[in-house]
Every structure is written in C-alpha cells, then in structure tokens.
Amino acid sequence: MARTKATRGSCVYCGKEFTRWGMTKHLQSCPQRAEQTGQTTGAGKSVPIFHLLVQDAYGGDFWLHLEISGQAPLQALDEYLRAIWLECCGHLSAFEIEGTRYTKKTRGFESLPGEKSWGVHVGSIFRPGVQGSHQYDFGSTTELALEVVAERQGVWRGKPIALMARNAPLDLKCSVCGKAAEWICTECLYEADDWFFCEEHLMDHEHEDDMALPVVNSPRMGTCGYEGPAEPPY
Ligand SMILES: [Zn+2]
Ligand SMILES: [Zn+2]
Ligand SMILES: [Zn+2]
Ligand SMILES: [Zn+2]
C-alpha cells in the first residue's frame, strides 16, 4: 500500500491547503494569522508562545501544527495528543526531548534514572529547533515526532494549546470495490496485503466484524481498541 502523495491540510486562519512542510512556511506568513495574533499583543502579560509540528514518527501522513503557551506544562501537550489522536484505554505515555525523558511522576513508583516530571513548563525546555518524540502505550506503541518550529511573544488567552492546521483524512479505499474505506480488519492488518473495507465488504469479509476498527484521522487508527478522536474543540 504505497502512498506517494503527501497529505494536505488547511490553515485554520485562512482555509488555504498545503502539505505539512508547505504549512510550516505558510503559517509564518499567513496574513489572517498575523492579524489574529496581532490582536493578542494588547493588555496582559506577554509570554513565549511556540509553534510545534507533531507528526507520526513513520510516514508523516498524519500531522498537526499547534501553538502552545510557554507557561503550559508539558503534560498539557500529552492530554491534547490523547484527545485528538491517541486515547483508547488510558495507557501510559512519555516524551523524550533532547535526550531527557519526561513522564507522569507518581508517588511510590520507581522511575527510570534521569526521568523528569512532565509538570515542567514547556517554556523552560522548548526553543526553535528542539526535537523530541512522544510515545503512547508501551505495548502497541504509537510514536510521534515533535519539532519546535518557531517562537513568538504574545498574550495568551484560553486553553494552553491551539490547533493551527492538521492533515485532511487520508484517501483510503476499500480493497474490494475501491470506494471510500470505513473499516480496518485488524486480523488482516498483520497477515494480509489488504485490510481496508467499505461497510458492505466488511460484512462479506471472512473475518468476524468484531475484529474491525473504524478508519479515523489518527496515526493510532487500527491499533489496540482505538475508535477515534474526541469531539472538537480539543
Ligand atoms: Zn493561512
Ligand atoms: Zn488501548
Ligand atoms: Zn467495498
Ligand atoms: Zn480480515
């Protein structure tokens, strides 16, 4: 199932479509974004604000351009990624940023040497160019790559993270008829070449339909019991 075309997504400020790299450039110069962020320079305390690119660690078909307040704890990013992309059954997760591992610190639990709490404010560890990863579920792991693209100063209001762009749903086809795929057969996922089905052909398929998971816009699609993201806003 070779995919050659880079996935595109639209800018939340102006609606124009770009690939993930095109979007990185575009967001730096989008006039509508500049207008909106310009309005936040008014009254209030100015804080560092970071532009983050988050993508699935393997294909890069799934991506998010986010803005995060420097005052937000790293944990807020974990919560956001769970809501938009990852949460299935409350698995553990961790970040690795510039060689340091950050995770939930629980009293009474032995932590790995050098491991830090993700209660740390991102402003103290993020700078443009900083790269890292996020792992959700240490069994059937979904691994994401993070990169701090840019930093600006501004007054931050509302939730600690804002979505600037995400990839449009992948154009996946039923392996029988070529119509839009709605289901993944997890039995076939590991053993066969074709695992995407439309509703009709899932019903005709040789495996039980309780082995099927819905096609959703997330890198965790088809993994564990993942059935899709929380409803926006995240
Ligand atoms: Zn734009
Ligand atoms: Zn799970
Ligand atoms: Zn079909
Ligand atoms: Zn199957």
What's the level 1 CATH class of the largest domain? Alpha Beta
Question: Which strand order spans the largest sheet, edge to edge or round the barrel?
Answer: 2-1-10-4-3-9-8-5-6-7
Shape, principal axes of CA atoms: globular
Order of helices and strands: EEHHEEHEEEEEEEHEHE
Domain module tally: 2
Give the termini separation: 31 Å
| Low-pLDDT ranges | none
**Main sheet?**
10 strands, mixed
Radius of gyration from CA coordinates = 19 Å
Topology:
Blueprint: E1 8-11, E2 17-19, H1 20-29, H2 31-38, E3 46-56, E4 63-69, H3 74-86, E5 93-97, E6 100-103, E7 116-117, E8 131-136, E9 142-155, E10 161-167, E11 183-185, H4 186-189, E12 196-197, H5 199-204, E13 212-214
Parallel strand pairs: 6-7
Antiparallel strand pairs: 1-2, 1-10, 3-4, 3-9, 4-10, 5-6, 5-8, 8-9, 11-12, 11-13
Q: What this model shows, in words?
A:
This protein is α+β, with helices and mostly antiparallel strands and 234 residues long. It folds into 2 domains: 8-167, Structural Genomics Hypothetical 15.5 Kd Protein In mrcA-pckA Intergenic Region, Chain A; 172-221 and 228-234, no CATH class. The chain contains 5 helices and 13 strands. The chain has helices at 20-29, 31-38, 74-86, 186-189, 199-204; strands spanning 8-11, 17-19, 46-56, 63-69, 93-97, 100-103, 116-117, 131-136, 142-155, 161-167, 183-185, 196-197, 212-214. It is globular and about 60 Å long. It starts with 7 loop residues before the first strand and ends in a 20-residue tail after the last strand. The relative contact order is 0.18. The model has no long low-confidence stretch (mean pLDDT 93). The protein binds zinc ion (4 copies).
